[in-house]
Specification:
mainly alpha, globular, 11 helices
Amino acid sequence: MTSRFNTLLLREWMQHKRGWLITLLLPPLLFLAILPFGNVEGMPLDHPLPMALLIVMISSAAVFGISYASAMFQLSGLARRDNQDRSIEFWLSLPASHSESIGATVLTHTVLVPLAALVVGFGFSALIAPGVIAKQGGMAALASVPWSSVMVAAVPLLLRALLGVVLMSLWLAPLMLMLMAASAWLKRWGLPALALTLGVGGVILDKVYGLRIVWDLLDAQIKGASLALFADPSGLPAQLRDARLGSDEKLDTAAWALHDGLSALQALASPHLLGGLLVAAGCFALLVLKRSRSN
């Protein structure tokens, strides 16, 4: 089973690798290409460590954001991809279950690609941060940055972000799989039908019956997803501010990342997450049923 699933993951890579490579590599490469010709102004370099760390974080987040938005944009089409390109007969002939085929697609696009984007963005930040610092303050500013300390402070943040992406995917699973199930069964009308059902249904329940259940459930899932990334969103900025105003020794990202990660894990003990996962499981079953009828 493991080898079959790995083969399905490889299939996703072979089919989408060009688009993924463009999404992951083109933005940071373009930034590095235009950096020598652009202007960087307004960055205080009196405390270079927190400033360099901030650049690393922004670079990683930018690559992640672009890749994640691209992956989410493709979700609706993935549900009916094999029917559209007429490859469904071939994939149905392979010794792999429908749940494995769909699971590999969902896992790759919603978890593995965003994780790879974070790692790639972090890798490019090792080039972007020195380039921006040198552009702003020259070689003297570049030499004043304790780059080993920057990397020591950045690695816990990367690990926390990787955990956050996995947890965020759990919180958003019902919304993503609802979209895929609607698109699989209703084709191009899936997204409008889902949006109309949630929107009109939410308004009717709210205005007519005084029930905000739709808005409350959506709000709970979105809040859970945001807390999965940053359970204490004010903690890290406060550390960066204190490091700028005082000593760089106050910057303890490892302790913040550990505390924040544990808080995000504790938030998993929520009935909203359990309910959302049950909805996601139902939508996954609808995807499997639709695929099984494709033959």
